[in-house]
Amino acid sequence: MPRFLSVLYWMLFGFITCNLVSERVQAEERPNVLFIAVDDLRPEIHGYGVSKMITPNFDRLADRGVRFERAYCNIAVCGASRASLMSGLRPTPKRFTSYLTRVDKDAPGVTSLPKLFKEQGYTTISNGKVYHHKDDDKSAWSEPAWRGKKSSLWWVMAENQPEPGGKKRGPAFEAAVELDENYPDAITCEKTIQDLKRLAKAEEPFFLACGFYRPHLPFVAPQKYWDLYPEEEVKLPNNMHYPHDLSKAFQYKWGEMRAYRDIPSDGPVSVDTARNLIRGYHACVSFIDAQLGRLLDELDQSGIADNTIIVLWGDHGWQLGEHGFWCKHTNFEVATRTPLYISGPGIEGGRSCDKLVEFVDIYPTLCDLANIEKPGHLQGKSMQVLLDDVKANFKEAVFTRHGGGDAVRTSDFRYMEMRTKNGAGEYLGEGLFDLKNDPAENYDFSINPEFAETRENLKEMLKQHKASIK
Question: Does the reported pTM lie above 0.90?
Fold first, then answer.
């Protein structure tokens, strides 16, 4: 071979080799994503200041990254909240309206968060309840979305057995001397652990979603988790009354829970039932905490923790008797505020952020963390600046809605309206809460002349926001 051809050959070989190595390095440097959803999870967690809660693994996760103190879903119902988060689009009176919401029908053609990662070469997997519907957004997943069978003993006892006449589900709460592994969320956790084991050995990065059902109704968990919260220590909220002076347009009948046995069809629950509901909710949160610990253990043992982003979120909050309400489906603080944790490569751990953020911000944030170009349809704002500096300026307000209600929440106030036609029709009433002096939202100040200017400013802010959303 002539010398110049030999030199050309080795130059070409070196060029190709360098490019292959560069591509391999880039692939190895791309962070994985462990995406954890928890149904009906309010910040009833030790690290959020609720000292009675036994949640060491949530606190362990907080030590890895940033805990967001004031994170809000954009609509307090599971299907719609998840669809909004995963699409990066806000809910409207005609889009993402109920638990039956589907991304592939309400936002056809929009590239969802997992689909974007799949298009970028990620292996995308869905375990448990990620979307409300298992078959929603099917093209987003590298493998068919997985859910365990609803056949374990507790499910049959607690949810699938109606009363005579078929009018009600099983009990709203239950404790049993059963092993953790017999419960669906533990089964989902085990499936996710096995996926972590195999994905850790693969060349491609992964987007692994794990959706836990509890603490959604029914509040069913092994007896040992109930034992963490002795019955005599369970306290009821001190505001189990409707907010003073608030329009009756915001009354809420929490029909979701009334479908369960021993829950009255109208009126309040008994004191004993209220205590058991709260105790059961706490037990379920600690049960999920144990599953989170299993995931973190496996991630550490896999050797890929340093290159894995973790995002944990509750799809919305949950009312535990505040204002006489249970469940979600309102725009009050306890229904819309939810835990949010983000950790990953380059994110300093052990920090909390009290800036206002909302769920539509999660999609663009993950794009920035994974160095993926953000799609043009996104309606949120990347939280990257807050992950770098938790005290950075971010948003003046966040917006929530459900049914006929829309609300704006600033650092010090919440203003909300109720209208007909799912929020697009005739005005029915408004409310204004001074969150700085009345964080429990027990007094409506919308008719107080001292708050007239604040009310009008927030009213205009909400009006402009609604007009800007398409």
Answer: yes
Residue with tokens 């009008």: 456
Catalytic position from the list 73, 78, 327, 367: 78
Band (2; pLDDT cuts 50, 70, 90): low
Give a yes or no: residue 198 inside a domain. Answer: yes
Tell me, yes or no, whether 108 lies in a domain.
yes
What is the tens place of the pLDDT at every residue in 18-48?
A: 443 333 334 447 999 999 999 999 999 999 9
Our count of domains for the chain comes to 1
CATH number at residue 79: 3.40.720.10
- 452 occurs within a structural domain: no
Mean pLDDT of the chain: 92
132 belongs to the catalytic site: yes
In a domain, 434, yes or no: no
Residue with tokens 């944990």: 312
Residue 353's beta-bridge partner residues? 68
Neighbours of 217 (CB within 10 A): 26
Q: What is the rounded CA–CA span in Å between residue 167 and residue 253?
A: 18
* Active-site choice (18, 46, 73, 132): 132
Domain that holds residue 310: 32-388
